[in-house]
Amino acid sequence: MRKSRFMGVLIGLIVSAPLLANSSVPLEVKGPFTQGALHLGKTVAGAEVTLNGEAVEVTDNGYFVFGFGRKAELEHELSVSANGETRTKTIKLSEREYDIDRVDGVPQKTVTPDPEQVKRARKEAEKVWLARQKASKNKHFLTPVAKPAEGRISGVYGSQRIFNGEPRNPHYGEDIAVPTGTPVKAPWTGKVVLAEPDLFYSGGTIIIEHGYKVNTTYLHLSKLHVETGDTVKQGEVIGEVGATGRATGPHLDWRVNWGNTRLDPALLPQLYED
To answer: Whole-structure pTM over 0.85, yes or no?
Structure first.
């Protein structure tokens, strides 16, 4: 989809709100207005954008991107200022229900990891966190997303298990059940900011940065075809599906973040629908 066409898609899908008197600042927003979704916006070049009072970076041609987490509040304020004028609108999200699986009677040793494993996992989590802080001025996220693999969806964003009454961390990705060795392709062009073959929880792991805090992650890979620092094109094979790390069978767990905000990969295609 060309950028001009994308802008046309934004127009007509704008969610409007009351404007300040005489405000002529353009503001267009596109995306599924629900928890866990990524959104794209368009205004004039040089404008200042804030979301709930926090600055949102704008590209040199007026585009910006932001997202809402799994349990985000249902009402948010987006503000754009340019040429001495300000335009503000309220974004209202729909609340989602997530799959919750309660399992009782699980042996404690099964749900309590070894202290050495915990220590290792914490060090690796810091490395992953640092990789996700990298943000370039690239605008690859404006291109319609391409799914990294095709197959049966075996796990969904937001789901959670509760063992013996104790909630585990929610699942923040989309699981695609396919055989070991299935190629994994980059959904957007970007730069590899992490490529690790053997992390404790996620096994073979790749993180790709796509610009303006948007990044994607690929877990449990059996093989990595890229290294940290590589630039990859959309559709390029970056690795192969596996069952490494804490996985019970071969599948791709892929994830999308806006900064530290974990988003639902399954919602991405809606962002680019005509």
So the answer is: yes
pLDDT tens digits, 140-165: 999 999 999 999 999 999 999 887 77
Residue 257 CA from chain centroid, whole number = 3
Asked if residue 220 lies in contact with residue 241, where contact means CB atoms within 8 angstroms, the answer is yes
Chain-centroid distance of CA 175 in Å reads 14
CA distance 149 to 147: 6
Q: What band does 110 get if pLDDT is binned at 50, 70 and 90?
A: low
Domains and CATH numbers, the chain: 3-92 (2.60.40), 100-272 (2.70.70.10)
3-state helix, strand, coil in the chain (%, to 5): 15, 40, 45
Q: 3-state DSSP call for residue 246?
A: coil
Q: Supply the DSSP symbol for 189.
A: -
According to DSSP, residue 148 is labeled S
Percent of the chain residues topping a pLDDT of 70: 88
pLDDT above 50: residue 14: no
Among candidate residues 220, 254, 224, the one with its CA nearest the CA of residue 237: 224
Output the furthest CA–CA distance in the chain (Å, rounded): 65
Q: How far apart are CA 101 and CA 168, in angstroms?
A: 10
Per the listing, tokens 């699981």 go with 175
3-state secondary structure of 125: helix
Cα radius of gyration rounded to whole Å, the chain: 20
C-alpha distances (whole Å) from 104 to each of 110, 135, 162 are 12, 42, 8
Structure tokens at 102: 């309660």
Tokens 């970007």 appear where?
190
For residue 18, the 8-state DSSP code is P
